Description:
The chain has one domain (13-164): Transposase IS200-like (Alpha-Beta Plaits), CATH 3.30.70. It contains 4 helices and 4 strands; from the N terminus they run βαββαβαα. It has helices spanning 30-46, 74-89, 112-128, 143-148, and strands at residues 13-19, 50-57, 60-66, 105-108. The chain has a 4-stranded antiparallel β-sheet with strand order 2-3-1-4, with helices on one face. The chain starts with 12 loop residues before the first strand and ends in a 22-residue tail after the last helix.
Amino acid sequence: MSQYRRLRVPGGCYFFTLVTSNRAPVFQGAAEVGALRVALRQTMHARPFRIHAMVVLPDHLHCIWQLPPGDADFSGRWRAIKKSVSQQLLRPGQTPATLWQRRFWEHLLRDEDDWRRHLDYIHYNPVKHGLAASPWAWPWSSFRHCVARGWYEPDWGASEPDAIAGMSLE
């Protein structure tokens, strides 16, 4: 059995990747993505954190979270989110294992350049997977919010940015 070591930094900023079980296309439509949104809101209300960026694709998601000072428990938050999504989407006889891979991948963002590369990776991901012609065209992404904040131009991502060329975080 593997011994996973997670770097837990109170108040840390993390990049996460979560994958569905067997890469099943769980998040195919607005209802399924809506279940994830409900789970996120419930968890954020109970155990606050900030989402800097997020993208939801049919078989996986990526996001960047900022945890509150003095708190490093991202695992407990993901457990609550996965449980809530499972309760909303599972049909009789299914178990959470039919929706989610057991674990998730996290990366502690170390500086602004690291944060920016992962932000770009998140927003370019639907284009990389052939799901959208541009980041703007993908409906389940924080890209439009980031444009509104002035972090991107609306036409960003017409081609793969050099800073993320070759990155594979899945």
